[in-house]
Amino acid sequence: MNIIAEQPTVPGLIRNVVANIHPDTHTFMMHKVKDTWVEISYKEALEKIDAISAWFLDIGIQKGDRLALIIENGPDYVYYDQALQQIGAVNTSIYPTLSEAEVEYILNDSEARTILCGNPFLFRKVLKVANNVSSLIRIIPAFDDFEKFSDKLSLNAGVIGFKKVIEEGLALVGKQTHAINAAREAILPSDISCLIYTSGTTGTPKGVMLTHSNLTQNVRWSLVQIPVIENTDLFLSFLPLSHVFERMATYYICLNKGCTIAFAQSLELLAKNMMEVKPTVMCCVPRLLERIHDKAMKNGLSAGGMKTKIFTWAMEVGKKVREAHEEGKNPGLVLGTQHKLADKLVFSKIKEKTGGRLKILVSGGGALPKNIGAFFGDIGVKVLEGFGLTETSPVMAVTENDRIIIGTVGRIIPGIEVAIQNVDTKKIYTIQTHDNFKPDFTSEEGEIIVRGHCVMKGYWRKPEETAAVIDSEGWFHTGDIGRFYKGNLQITDRLKNMLVNAYGKNIYPTPVENTYLKSPKIEHVFLLGDKREYITAILVPSRELLQETFKLGNDYFEKPDVFINDQEIIDWVNQDVKKYSNELAKFERIKNFKLKRVPFSMEEGEITPTMKAKRKVIEKKYAEAIDDLYLQETEAD
């Protein structure tokens, strides 16, 4: 039965599953222990959740207290989250990749009372700053033998293992059951469910206050938009649950529908895990899809002889079928027969690498290049793009399963309004909702603004910053530029990313960068040129292709020189820069570039945990090299 729960609070979701969808013995989660995938039932999960809630109450945790987590995806995240949610505490998740200073800032700003630590590395990171956080009363390591890291330290907060918390909690459940139930019933939809700190590309991180209603409404109406998700589906989770996209689009979606969640071991083992658990649905970021595309194209085109001819023929057939479906046409008998053969000979082999059962991929966290979306459509895997921000819970729009317009992020979800506003005059060009959708509607371009159930309560203890983004009429200003195209929302770029050259031409980096990213030689593009006469870039070449083409060892990428100066390699990349420049207007083309030896990294402070480039940091760090780009005379175009 395809039920969409209308629960007003997060803890109501799991209770609804065991009451109305599955028996409590049904598998809720899966994770790998050594070499075996272990299944966890709803009953097992609820026993631990209630035990942790009982323990929280016993140490004096109250409604509204902030409880922190710095832990990788897995069952422990779910136990802790559900336990604090059902007593009205606030989930304050911290990205595992953040620095000690950033962890300390978030713990202090949120006044966190406890923190769950996922591994020795994260535990040690917290131990170093714990005494600087006056609110912290308990540190909870989720692994064995943690004492060797903390026993010799003088800490203000107590340290207790997560296993011990559950053990003590089980003994407390009997006397705390009434209190747990009363706390759960006292939660209001308008109460804060979580604080999610923004990535801080433009300054100090801000705690986004999302309510129970924000999240449950977002889940509910997103599912209305994508009715193909059923309670028999298996999701594979690998994106961080500390980010709202994975938490809502995998974890809470599964809680609403009664789907099973399998937790991937790591990004490095993701391909192996996909083959093992054979997911039917997965949330992902564009970079993962680009890698699958690049590998499939490389294998198909380098096979040689008849194999390459068959691959090329199959991709052309897939394209024709996709385009026919996009136009609402039937491919016809001949093309349909060819497509079945193409699927048998080529497409099925590619899809087997994902486990062979994927019916949809949900892409978020960044713009999906059109050619990548087209590729997956050609091989028969539906990629549904979504759009939103942490401040919008996050989904504002998502592609409908039966109406994919490549290059757009879908239809507005029910219950909210999305408008396009002129950046300069503030005139609103159009206000669109789910209900006034027209498949032939195209609007002017401007800033995307939104109001409705998805908009955050505000930034934690930052009323001025809140007022700067939510105006007097309730519109949240996203800072994203876009328009409506064929009724769907289409993103152009971030308003703050816009480059204005010396001649006053506005250049949005994302579509330009995506054009150059069509090249398999280029892994990352960082566009430059604000207030300059022409566009330049820092490019990160594909390490795998570079090593293969020029027979390079790993030591080549460990050299102290930040940039690659080998002319042969520069010329090799420049071939594709010239090629793809032809698809752009002259003022958008890269004239000069530097090749960065290794990718931008979080450790160096160059990108955020959501992989967004910190423009100010990068421009300051590489200022000398950037200036040099404007002294060169060699042109790439």
TrEMBL record:
Keyword Nucleotide-binding: yes
Keyword Disulfide bond annotated: no
Coiled coil: none
Domain of life: Bacteria
Sequence ranges assigned to domain AMP-dependent synthetase/ligase in this UniProt record: 22-460
Keywords: ATP-binding, Nucleotide-binding
InterPro entries associated with the record: AMP-binding_CS (IPR020845), AMP-dep_synth/lig_dom (IPR000873), ANL_N_sf (IPR042099)
UniProt GO MF annotations: ATP binding; long-chain fatty acid-CoA ligase activity
GO CC terms in record: membrane
Protein name: AMP-binding protein
Organism expressing this protein natively: Mucilaginibacter pedocola
